[in-house]
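Let's do one together. I've listed all components of the complex below, 562 residues spread over two lines.
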Amino acid sequence: MAPGANGIVLEARDLRKAFGGVHAVDGCSFAIPRGKICGLIGPNGSGKTTTFNLLTGVAQPDGGQVLHNGVDIAGLKPHLVFRRGITRTFQITRVFREMTVLENMLSATGLDVPERVARERAGELIALVKLSHLRGEYGGRLSYGQQKLLEFARALMTDPDVILLDEPAAGVNRTLLQHLLEQIHRLQEAGKTILIVEHDMNVIMNHCERIFVMDYGVKIAEGPPSEIQGDERVTEAYFGRRRSGVVHAG
Amino acid sequence: MTQREHLRNLALLGLLALVLAVLPSGLSVYLLSFAMFTMMYVVLALSWNIISGFTGYTSFGHVAFYGIGAYACAILVVDHSWPWLPTLVMAALVAGLVAVAIGYPVLRLKGPYFAIAMLGMAEGTRVVATVWDGLTHGGVGISFPSVENSTSTYYAMLALMLITIAVAYLVAHSRFGIRLNAIREDEVAAEAIGINVTRYKLVAFVLSAIFPAVAGGIQAYKVLYIEPQAVFFVQITIAMALMSMLGGKGTVIGPVIGAVLLYTAQELTWVNFPTAHLIAYGLFIIVVARFMPRGLIGFAIDRGWVRKGMVH
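Okay, and this is what the predicted structure of the assembly comes out as:
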């Protein structure tokens, strides 16, 4: 796949989305460099999940562009966005509850992929997220953390190019989280680009190379963790105005 | 499911075919017709299950396709002097086309809205059949010339049932079927993992429409008379749904078992308690809904007697 200009794989340009009178995303722009782990943070209601939905076709933008490798994909249907190699997980897990772990995995491959290949890949990924012993169990019977892992594994079934993770750490215990983060780094080593929405600042500050901060539907800051931690606008957005301060980890 | 299990199931289906093929020689006319109608309900329940069980779009109007098939057959045989068998192909074709035309807009609706829209669709086709005198002979219905038909309709229904079971089985155990299940479970997530939900739903809907249409055509030729009230009877839709739910919707064997049990129960209560049969029937449904909300197969799965999932 041809890389976009300047090594940018996914870019939001002046994205806008309003729900009634609420401007959830209000002219948001940022560019995600290829092969990086990036974080998207902001207080509750700042428009992070809506931005995710706009990037992946789950919601249609009122205005602006989404460029994937330089091609505008704004307004494309979710299954077509997915087919371009952009995959995602959801804030509240959306595993298929009355389908087994294996079926959850197999549902994510196109019918053009031979069944044998799909099964092999499903098996590998299920092992990767340590769910092999539960492959015949219903998705809805897994613990919340396991459901997060299943959804993560399912999103990787087609070997995507860009992976958007909406709060991967929420509800996942420390051991599983550590494992999940290792997998994320491994994906990066394999050349994937990852964007994480997360409230757990440990995850964001220790694992992301570039952070975008949103508030009231716009990007208010951008930079490496060291810069973001000292950025007054970010502190203000999270804690209100004060003389000086940092975003505390945790 | 392993290769061996598939082969075993194929062998079982072959055995069933063989038994049912030799059965008519030993049966009275009443039992032959009872067997034919049982097979018809297996077809109807399994078809309903493709869109409502596998895909999660509960249809309250599936009798429309059955009625359309019955009318396609009757009109072609009586008014256009077609031989009977080819009209069944036309019945499937017409129902398939109607399913595409109706499905495209209606499958955008979800849950109860889809169910109600389908109910309206079925009532609408009944009204059309009643008032369109020129095509359907209106409310007086259509009578076929009298022929000996018990054996031919029995074998036609047997063939249709075997095909329907085979198709439902293939769908259930394929990734196409898994993806229909994904739509049932969570349509937003299904789209997000690359499933073109509009297309998948439409294919499932068309599949679920064509078999009832053929069944309608066979049934019309069996009873030799059709009228709108009879072939667009809402209770036929309800039977499809109840049978699937009793056996276990979303499975293949569930609707088959449900159809056989419920049709037999209905026939027995009807024969033995002509005045009270609806009460008995209703009680039966309440008991099932209370103690086996996911049907017999769901009941068995919950107790670990049957493995979870369609693909292993």
